[in-house]
Write a structure and sequence with these properties.
This is YifB family Mg chelatase-like AAA ATPase. Pfam families: ChlI, Mg_chelatase, Mg_chelatase_C. Belongs to the Mg-chelatase subunits D/I family. ComM subfamily. Keywords: ATP-binding, Nucleotide-binding. By secondary structure, this protein is of the alpha/beta class. It contains 20 helices and 18 strands. The protein folds into two domains: 2-177, Ribosomal Protein S5, domain 2 (2-Layer Sandwich); 194-505, Rossmann fold, CATH 3.40.50.300. The strands form six sheets. The chain has a five-stranded parallel beta sheet with strand order 11-14-17-10-18. It has a four-stranded mixed beta sheet with strand order 1-2-4-3. Helix 16 (408-425) packs across helix 19. The longest helix has 18 residues, at 408-425. The termini are far apart. Bound molecules: adenosine-5'-triphosphate and magnesium ion. Magnesium ion is lined by residues 227-228, 305.
């Protein structure tokens, strides 16, 4: 007898429905067709054991399973449950009237227990679009799938529950989430708060500016100065995520199977890959493409701690996605695109020994060592970083001060206000939404200086020996500082402040 069961395959961050046809006939054999990979081919062993351990079996007949569309690549073990239920239905071991109303997925353990799957959220989105009544999947993924409205989501622990549901009409427990409520509940509680950071008023101000204009930033300071601590708190002062952004970001995390218990991610992600990371792990890829760290940071912050320690080629592959805000991975038969719109925060020690221009430093580096160290980051990547700031450790009396600093929620209010000004400024543009994204034409239009400010900038550029590339960055950052103040015209004070944030352009470092 022929029976159909339904599952789904994920490409990029979208899913496609897969129809699994199971046909049982006289004879012997077990054939799986329709481009399944090795993990699926091995599934018959897991299915056989799981069925046997629950009082069912794969009968000694000729079983042909066809997964269509055949040209769509299907990977992984997430189809175990689909196939098992299909086999039971087509061999009349269970009743199967409603099979076509559900999407059924999950990896089986030998005892019939279920292991989580990847991509539950995009699969649920597609299932609703295609009019399925419900989605039956491993309990660990239920919350993530239940983000989708108008789809019944049933998280199950083992195959027995699914069998009893179809065969005996035993109800399954539905996972119901009020998506908007859940989202709003999670919005205001950042994991790390700026109020934990003592002193460092200047750096906090600088990070507020970076957040307000979406400027990439590099923190330069000796070990223990608090660079990592500060960077971790940046997501908490970025404007709150919109529900749309939260869904986008959760989808990407779902694809790699890493959605946390909270289900919908209402906090902007903070990703901090180690400097030994590979190209593929950073930008995404692999023979079955998976998103990389730059996509897991989508709508949040990517922190590259100890920037000069990263391999130069790894930093190079990041350049294009940084510009395009998405990354495209091409294979012979298909192409997938992952979004990758993130704020880059980098950190570095001032020299390979950790110190620079510091007479009290325990060790110092030779000029040649310095040059090699800086040479790794100079050039194209640094060109995309608007703000450089030196972080010096806070003195002991400030560290021991019990008073709490300003909270992230309060700082974020100012950032959000400045972002609203920018949203309005760029409302006619599809690709530019905040100051850091301005192209040359927009800089000329929106960063007009009066004669006095122009003169100030000219003098500073000459005196501090600032590079030409610094010029446009200073203008962009000045624009953001003016926006934070709520004024339309950029003045001398805005320019002077922005000039301070170009440490690496000055003599001594990049020269
Ligand atoms: N301003 C500060 N307020 C409160 N605690 C601080 C501050 N600065 C540093 N600390 C404490 O010092 C620890 C070390 O800071 P952190 O790891 O952020 O330094 P770092 O600059 O990243 O150092 P490294 O170069 O070694 O990575 C923090 O975990 C924190 O406990
Ligand atoms: Mg650190």
């Amino acid at each position: 007898m022929l029976k159909k069961v339904f599952a789904s395959a994920v490409f990029g961050v979208e899913a496609s429905t897969i129809t699994v046809e199971v046909n049982v006939d006289k004879g012997v054999g077990y054939h799986l067709v329709g481009l399944p990979d090795n993990a699926i081919k091995e599934s018959n062993f897991r299915i056989a054991a799981a069925l046997q351990n629950n009082g069912y079996r794969i009968p000694g007949k000729k079983i042909i399973i066809n997964m269509s569309p055949a040209d769509l690549r299907k990977e992984g073990s997430a189809y175990d449950l689909t196939l098992a239920i299909g086999i039971l239905a087509s061999t009349d071991q269970i009743k199967a009237e409603d099979l076509d109303k559900y999407l059924i997925m999950g990896e089986l353990s030998l005892d019939g227990g279920l292991q989580p799957i990847k991509g539950a959220l995009p699969i649920a989105v597609k299932a609703r679009e295609e009019g399925f009544k419900g989605f039956i999947l491993p309990a660990q993924n239920a919350k993530e799938a239940a983000i989708v409205d108008n789809l019944e989501v049933y998280g199950v622990e083992n195959i027995k529950q699914v069998i009893n549901f179809f065969d005996k009409g035993e109800p399954l427990e539905q996972t119901i989430i009020n998506t908007r409520e859940e989202f709003e509940k999670n919005l205001d509680f950042p994991e790390f708060d700026f109020s934990d950071v003592k002193g460092q008023e200047g750096i906090k101000r600088c990070m507020e500016i970076a957040a307000a204009g979406g400027h990439n930033i590099i923190l330069i300071g000796p070990p223990g100065a608090g660079k990592t601590m500060l960077a971790k708190r940046l997501p908490s002062i970025l404007p709150p995520m919109t529900l749309h952004e939260a869904l986008e970001t959760t989808k990407i995390h779902s694809v790699v199977g890493r959605v946390k218990d909270t289900g919908l991610m209402a906090q902007r992600p903070f990703r901090s890959p180690h400097h030994t990371i590979s190209n593929v792990a950073l930008v995404g890829g692999g023979s079955y493409p998976q998103p990389g760290e730059i996509s897991l940071s989508h709508n949040g912050v990517l922190f590259l701690d100890e920037l000069p320690e990263f391999k130069r080629e790894v930093l190079e592959v990041m350049r294009q996605p940084l510009e395009d805000r998405e990354v495209t991975i091409s294979r012979a038969k298909f192409t997938v695109t992952y979004p990758s719109s993130f704020m880059l925060v980098a950190s570095m020690n001032p020299s390979p020994s950790g110190f620079f221009n510091d007479p009290d430093a325990p060790i110092t580096s030779s000029p040649a060592e310095m040059q090699r160290y800086m040479g790794k980051i100079s050039g194209p990547l640094l060109d995309r970083i608007d703000i450089h700031i030196e972080v010096t450790p806070v003195p002991f009396d400030k560290l021991s001060d019990d008073r709490k600093g300003e909270t992230s929620v309060d700082i974020r209010k100012r950032v959000t206000k400045a972002r609203e000004v920018q949203t309005k400024r760029f409302e006619d543009s599809d690709s530019v939404h905040y100051n850091a994204q301005m192209n040359v034409k927009q800089i000329r239009k929106h960063c007009v200086l009066d004669d006095a400010s122009k003169q100030l900038l000219k003098t500073a550029m000459e005196r501090l020996n600032l590079s030409a590339r610094a010029y446009d960055r200073i203008l962009k950052v000045s624009r953001t500082i003016a926006d934070l103040e709520g004024v339309n015209n950029i003045n001398g004070a805005h320019i002077s402040e922005a000039i301070q944030y170009r440490s690496l352009d000055r003599d001594g470092w990049l020269g």
